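Convert to structure. Protein one:
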Amino acid sequence: MLGTLNGALEVRGVSLPGDAIRATVEGENVLEGKLPVLKSIRVHYRLKIPKGSREVVERALASHQEKCPTAQSLKGAVAVSWTADMEEV
C-alpha cells in the first residue's frame, strides 16, 4: 500500500523523498484449529508533507486502498485498514 500511496501522491504533484514517507504495519493472526490464519493488517503512515498540500494528500489517502493490488487481492479474506499522521514541513 505504501507504493500505491506514493504513486497516488506523485500523480497529484506531491513528491516525497524516502525519509518523508514511512509505514508501520501490524498483522493479526488467529488460530483456526492448529493453523495460524492472517485476519487483519493495520498500516500506519507517517508523512512529512509540503506546506499547503494537506488536502491533496488526504484525497490520495482516501482512495489509495481501492487502487492497491495487494489490498484488493486480500479483500474479503483479510481486513486491511490504515491510519496516518501528517506533518507539514
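Protein two, convert as well:
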Amino acid sequence: MNVLTTDSIRLHGTATNREDAIAEVGALLVSAGAVSQQYVSAMFARESSVSTYMGNLLAIPHGTNDSKDEIRHSAVSVVRYDHDIDWGGNPVRFVIGIAGKGDSHMEVLAAIAMTFSDMTAVEELLVADSAETILHRLGLDAS
C-alpha cells in the first residue's frame, strides 16, 4: 500500500490558519481510513507542545507518541495553500500530515525532506498543476 496517493493531495487548501490546516490534513488521513479522529486530536496536542514547522514553507503535523494506537496504517496527506499560513510566525504553503505505523512511512519522509531542502524544488511544487505532478516531484509516483 502506498502511504501517499493522489486522493490524499489537495492543491488548494481552504484553511487560513494553523489550526484549520491541521484539521484539514488530519481529515484527509481520517478519510483515507489511516487514523481515528483521536489521532487528529493528538496532532493538535503535538503542535501545542512543539511546532512542526520545518522551514522552506513546510509544516509536518503528526500525532504524539501516545497516539500510535490510533493509527490503522501508515499514510501521508499533502495540502498546498494559495496564500501563506502563519505557523507561529513562519510562512507555510505546504502542510503534510504524517501517520506512521512501524517505519513504512520513512521513505516518504526522506523524499519530502530531500525535496523541501531545495528551494527550486519547492518553487516547482508551488506551481504544480496536479496531484500526480506533486507525487512525481516528490519522487513517490509508481513510475
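The mean pLDDT is 92. Residues 18-31 form the longest helix (14 residues).
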